[in-house]
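Forwarding the complex inputs:
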Amino acid sequence: MTVSRSPRVVIVGAGFGGLKAAQLLARSGVEILLIDRNNYHTFVPLLYQVAVAELEPEQIAYPVRRILRRIPNARFVMAEVKQIDFAGQVVETEDSAISYDFLILATGSKSQYLGVPGAREYTLPMKTLEEAVALRNHIFSCFEQAVREKDATQRQQLLTFVIVGGGPTGVELAGALVELMHGPLVKDYPTLDLQQVRVILLQSGDRLVAEYPQRLGDYTQKQLRTRGVKVHLQAKVSQVTPQAVHLQDGTTILAKTIIWTAGVEASPPPPTGELFPSAKGKVAVLPTLQLPNQPQVYAIGDVADVEYKGQPLPAVAPVAIQQGASVANNIKRQLRGLSPQTFRYKDKGRAAIIARNAGVAQTDKLTLMGFPGWFLWLGIHLYYLPGLRNSLLVFISWVCDYLFGDRFVRLIFPQSTFLGIQSPPFAATDDHQPGAKQNIG
Amino acid sequence: MTVSRSPRVVIVGAGFGGLKAAQLLARSGVEILLIDRNNYHTFVPLLYQVAVAELEPEQIAYPVRRILRRIPNARFVMAEVKQIDFAGQVVETEDSAISYDFLILATGSKSQYLGVPGAREYTLPMKTLEEAVALRNHIFSCFEQAVREKDATQRQQLLTFVIVGGGPTGVELAGALVELMHGPLVKDYPTLDLQQVRVILLQSGDRLVAEYPQRLGDYTQKQLRTRGVKVHLQAKVSQVTPQAVHLQDGTTILAKTIIWTAGVEASPPPPTGELFPSAKGKVAVLPTLQLPNQPQVYAIGDVADVEYKGQPLPAVAPVAIQQGASVANNIKRQLRGLSPQTFRYKDKGRAAIIARNAGVAQTDKLTLMGFPGWFLWLGIHLYYLPGLRNSLLVFISWVCDYLFGDRFVRLIFPQSTFLGIQSPPFAATDDHQPGAKQNIG
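Prediction (whole assembly, two chains):
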């Protein structure tokens, strides 16, 4: 460690955990260097509302540099980490080598495909802002194609939307999708028979939102079914093809849209080898969140392998935030020559939204269903969303949606946004034999 | 014309003119078929505010199908027109052939490069939502690169922003850019010497906003210069290269960002041959806006060649809207066996915004400068922006910007949005010899 300058803390990842650590290290005498591949923080819990045309992507993205303005001892580097040299204490990006005294790995998670053949290639993920916008484009492209499609089977396929995974994300997306399709889209596509529209939620286990008490799961399932979602329990996906999802029980569901929310795995930076990869590619850490062989290096959030009551901690914002705070405190202690403290998770409970006026929430004290759960969910997310302007815009978007029962961001942005994300419908247009034109009217 | 069904009016283009025509043909006994390559209407006058991170792109885009909900006799087809068969009265898209009884061409305009070598390849346009977002990405990418760039010349180049064209669009963009760079970006990039930032406006003529009275042009120039824009009059661009813009007087300005607002030309659908192309590729029309040899076919907006007081009408929304209304009325007359009427343009004046509290506006009655002109401009655009929600969101965005003097949409969305749009800085990173890493700190 050079003595000529104040010790440098390098944070990789500007998610909930990384930002919290940076904020709590403000004015602490260290130099903070925050690295992220994007120049914005993504408010992941609202991603699905971007996908269903409820919110603009910019409303849930927040410029990192604006957050860092209040942290005078912090700098931002927009880059992708290519390699970490633990021996030399250097983080390498494409065009720079950044030395560190302390390192916080907060690189989050990516979709986990559980080894299902075709899942990675033929399902749409929803982990990033780019993917959420691509999903929005995809959904509305399916309707634009369906309204022109003369073949009934093809049309049915275009109007079938399968969501794999019955956790909170899958539930929230299913509820929002079915509302979109039975509300605004009925008005948008008067010539289309919307009885054909199917929103199918596939859950491998025997109940939805398994981390919630049984009765909340039952309520969730009842709500979704009442609103038109076809919920299939014990539905294990065996294979995904460009046009269909196949289940272990032999069922085949033809669909142009298969969305994957069935789980996440850590996305640690290279070299994973030295990071003692554990379950789901996570980074093994000590109770203090330090790496076993690297007292100067911490891992937090989705990327850290931490258990709580015998279960791995869920990949949610509160965990990352609490760990970011704990690590910031531990680094301050190390600088004062004190030993880092064990991370203790405080479970504040959980909340999920199902659909209009219907949500579930649970804390150690109370359990909420229906309108109270829905209202609490909205309040929590509005409270935690960074930025007054964003909060205002999101609030207005929600009010307009609630009053007019409409979704206003029904925009298909140019296909360029599909880059890197496979898009069945657009691929499907190639099926048309050239020159085979349909006559309208 | 088949008698079995009501006559069909096909409108190509969902811009200001096409939508106005559709709205006025509502419940008129005709069948309306509106064709556009996008499923949204773009509020073009505010595009530059998307480019400077003031507004979200979705705030100035509006779903066409939502507008058509109020027009029961209208249908929408999202497609690109490939060919028009005037003899057979058929509009052909990639996968359909659409017959028409009446046809309205409202296909708008595209950038005009005046035959300047390299202009098309190496300047950034700002005619579509996609291009405005790409420009936003580009501007902030330049700053992210500049903050890491050790070479002074390279850095100067990254921080030089040239706008070609001193019309309203160029003026509005220049004013907004200089505000962005001397305001929010100073706070975002404390380590960057923002004395290096240059916003240069190149005008080929001897004054800015030439269609306004002299003193408004002078005021505009004075305002821009006071706020830090380098205004060059009589500056004729002779060539554009990937790294610089060259003027006829021999001057060379090194810049990674060269934005082209120097003019537009019509973008008529094929076959242009039969459309009697006239000046700037426009479609020649009769005083009734009918095509000379096609009494059932009209052209409106930027694509139609119409003169007013000896000058071609400007490519602005009011012209398109008035022409859309006139054509709707003419088609109704033709259906009643009456002859179409001559289009008469009513000049309601013009308004342009320069920067905070500074605008120019002119009608036949009054001439406004400074705050009144600025306030009028905001009011007009808020009034004409389609959709209550969008108006609310834009209003809040403007208020937040005004109160906090900040731009909140400073997001660099993934490079995929650059597809089809060249991006000097990203190309420039290839200059780095591999492995030549800089050490940070």
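The domain at 119-262 of chain A is CATH 3.50.50.60 (FAD/NAD(P)-binding domain).
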